[in-house]
Amino acid sequence: MSFAPSTLVAGTLDAAATAQRLPWSALADEIAKLLHDSTVSVPARSVLPLAQGGSLFLMPATDRSVAMTKLITFTPANAGTGRPSIQGDVVVFDIATGARQLVLDGPTVTARRTAAVSLLAARHLAPAPQGPLLIVGAGVQGLAHAEAFVLGLGVQEVWISSRSAASAETLATQVRGLGAQVRVVADADAALTHCPLVAVCTTASSLVLHATPRADAFITAVGAFTPAMAELAPALCQHVAEHGSIVVDTADASHEAGDLLQAGLDVAALPVLRDVVCGPWKPRAPSGPVLFKSCGWAGWDLAAARLALRQGAAQPPAT
Fold first, then answer.
1. Could you tell me the fold of the domain covering 119-297?
2. Judging by beta carbons within 10 Å of its beta carbon (0-12, 13-18, 19+), is residue 38 exposed, middle or buried?
3. Structural element, H or E, at residue 17
4. How far apart are CA 295 and CA 225, in angstroms?
5. Are 252 and 227 a contacting pair, CB within 8 Å?
6. How many other CB atoms are found less than 10 A from the CB of residue 94?
7. Which segment of 6-15, 116-125, 293-302 scores lowest on mean pLDDT?
8. Percentage of the chain with pLDDT > 90?
9. At the topology level of CATH, where does 15-109+299-312 sit?
């Protein structure tokens, strides 16, 4: 039996084309719109454990006109190998016809929607949105958050801390290319004194922040998404809970937010991003640091799919 050579399916976008359809501010705006959309349905994601500590994620979501599923693998063992830790696709369908409309690059969608959720949260919650911004972790999410905060929030100064000096310097070069001033630092805890914006973007294999944050700090932590994973020390989380405010991305964080669960906090009682964006919600403390804990949700991927479809429809046809 012979098979024709494989070809790229029409409507399949590579990483660069996917990113082009998901500009930062527009993606944050689309996520906010999705939170107001009562037709959105997001069932619990399915997670299948794989050998050697990996996982296969199946994450569907729909609204009145679009159905999508993100199918990705998460392979922690790929860290430091040059192979991506997250691989896969986002497949988008038209509900009316059942036709497949797009196949988006899964890692690109994951990186951009995660950082755009942090951007949206910072718009509403950051006491000092001008920065400087401290990024802890110099991988894919580190770069995505730098781009989102520089291009979407107007941050002009970025501090970078990473266990890998080479990775930190690589990210520093990329961030300078965005027009921001950059400083690479060895001690992330010491940098908390100087940076009111903090994005913690590690693989969550060990704690990376322990010190008490500034009273005007906004911390977004995105690396931990299981009860066993954590980036933030329990004492840091407990300090923010006592002196400031903690917001989680969705109610799923009640069984996924390892940072908060390991700190002994009642995650189910915390406000979610929808409360902040759609209101009414007031911070528990009138001042004090804010921690935004993001674990991921297929709704964020649906927002990216909706925006990618609209951006594609707005582009002139190829000649």
1. Rossmann fold (3.40.50)
2. exposed
3. helix 15-20
4. 5
5. no
6. 14
7. 6-15
8. 85
9. ornithine cyclodeaminase, domain 1 (3.30.1780)
